[in-house]
Amino acid sequence: MPLPDLPWPLLQAVTELADAPLTQIAERLRNATRPYLGSSSLIIFTEDCTGRPQKKAGEEDIISRVSIVELDTLRAALSDETPWVGEAEIAGRPRPVLALKHAPSQALLVLTDPHPNDPGHNAGLDLVTYLWRIAARRIHEKVADAPPSYLLESRAASAERIRVTAELTDLHSTTLETLLAALHSSLLDDAAARSTVTDLTAKALVTLRTLSDRTNDLVTEPVATAFERLREDLRPLTRFSGIEVEFIEPPLNGRDLPGEVAHAARAIVRGLLLAIMEQPDVSRVRTQWDCDGENLLINVRDNGRGTLAADAPSIVRLDRRVQALTGHLQIDVMPGWGADVFVTLPLDPPARPAGDVAGWNLAPRELEVLQHLAAGERNRTIASTLGISENTVKFHVRNLFKKLDVGSRTEAIALAHSTGLR
User: Fold this and answer.
1) Distance CA 365, CA 185 (A)
2) Residue range 95-136, pLDDT digits in tens
3) Which of 16, 62, 105, 348 could disulfide-link 41, Cβ–Cβ 3.0 to 4.6 Å?
4) Which helix (H) or strand (E) holds 145?
5) CA nearest 374: which of 6, 23, 1, 75?
6) Distance, CA of 417 to CA of 411 (rounded, Å)
7) HSE of 304, CA atoms in CB hemisphere, 13 A
8) Which CATH architecture has domain 3-145?
9) What is the rounded average pLDDT of the residues 203-230?
10) Domain ranges for the chain
11) CA–CA separation, 158 and 315 (whole Å)
12) What are phi and psi of 95, to 5 degrees?
């Protein structure tokens, strides 16, 4: 094909999508698909990203109200990767949607109110499917790599989401329990009404508790499950290496791992194994996980010559991941006998001063804007990423200044960084 005839806009969109940071991937995917298939909003739901399982772009009224329960229900109804077009409950009411699932990661793409920009041409859906697979692969690879910036963002978002969900659950549970007590009162003589409303209220309580449990499931992973995923991840890497890898499993009753800790642990062990495989005369590696209730304890040991260096670039990069979670990495080198690597990853964020994120009483959208500010983004970029207007971003920034008691973006960013937001 002659160069002028190449589909340059599509190729440019693929390049931007393949290079997208996770905070911008929904907006870039929407921009890439828009020439072929219009929509009122685009929503990505992936449990790979424990901190932010939803990535959204489009109409604020939809993306601010769509729930994990709605997306989980829709995903469960899809049997394979075949595009599904129909009506589904999204943001509180039935809407026309196009839904696509990515089988390897179980990620879900939802386009609301889809409409082909060229009704007489059917290739649009194929292109959307192709672009979605690139985006889903990008998310999966980015999370597996677990760079420090992702770990910091994920830890902050996970902690905030659990806090907000717990508060909402407690609030609604108290309300419903009060209603149940009133309906059980002997002062009410309409038995049929009491029975009906009691049943409905009990079901609402169950739904709320289920939502809370589902949220917690998204941000934690059983330690045994996380270790088994590590074994699966390493199997292709070690199959033809000639190195025997011994896995010492953690106790089954160990505490569940926060998602960012599980991601970091797998990435760290994978990186250590790659560094060890570059050494001469290594034939055996042992990796062990344990949990003391407060920390995930990782030990990787090889039987090489003991040439693994703490200042090697590959080890320094791994140490940055460890430090992002306020952990500790130590290497004991035994010349002629190998190297012993010990990593400690705290399961909980460090204690913060009284003026921390939780004490600022930020709304969810204000927290998102603050996180983007802390990443050094300007108002226009934040607006594009979140799918809101620049004036709305300015409104949130003004509110942030008041709640954080600061007078400038620089002060806000410095205060955010002091609490671990990046």
Assistant:
1) 41
2) 999 999 999 888 999 999 998 865 555 567 888 999 999 999
3) 62
4) helix 123-145
5) 23
6) 10
7) 24
8) 2-Layer Sandwich (3.30)
9) 73
10) 3-145, 148-219, 223-346, 358-418
11) 27
12) -140, 150
| Sole residue written with tokens 């038995």 | 191
Contact by Cβ (8 Å): 410, 397: no
Closest CA to 211 of 326, 67, 341: 67
| Ramachandran quadrant class, 113 (left: phi over 0; alpha: psi -120 to 50; beta: rest) | left
Mean pLDDT, residues 271-299: 91
Q: How many CB atoms lie within 10 A of CB 253?
A: 9
Identity of the residue numbered 380: R
CB atoms within 10 A of CB 99: 24
Question: Which of 161-170, 236-245, 413-422 is most confident?
Answer: 236-245
One-letter identity of residue 106: Q
Q: Report the phi/psi class of residue 354: left, alpha or beta, with left for phi > 0 and alpha for psi in -120 to 50.
A: alpha
Read out DSSP for 186-214? TT---HHHHHHHHHHHHHHHHHHHHHHHH
Work out the end-to-end distance of the chain between its first and last CA atoms, rounded to an integer number of angstroms: 45
What are phi and psi for residue 397, nearest 5 degrees? -65, -40
Span 77-103, mean pLDDT?
92
| Burial (CB count <10 Å: 0-12, 13-18, 19+), residue 345 | buried
Question: Token digits for 54?
Answer: 């939803």
Read off the tokens for 53: 């399982």
Percentage, residues of the chain above pLDDT 70: 80
Element containing residue 316 per DSSP (H, E): helix 313-324
Rounded mean pLDDT, 54-62 = 88
Contact 45, 110 (CB under 8 A): yes
CATH for the 358-418 domain, from 3.40.50.720, 3.40.630.30, 1.10.10.10, 3.40.50.300 = 1.10.10.10
How many Å apart are CA 390 and CA 418, to the nearest integer?
26
3-145 shares its CATH topology with 223-346: no
Q: What are the C-alpha distances in Å from 219 to residues 46, 135, 159?
A: 12, 21, 9
Split at pLDDT 50, 70, 90, the class of 295 is very high
CB 29: neighbour CB atoms within 10 A?
A: 27
CATH class for domain 223-346? alpha beta
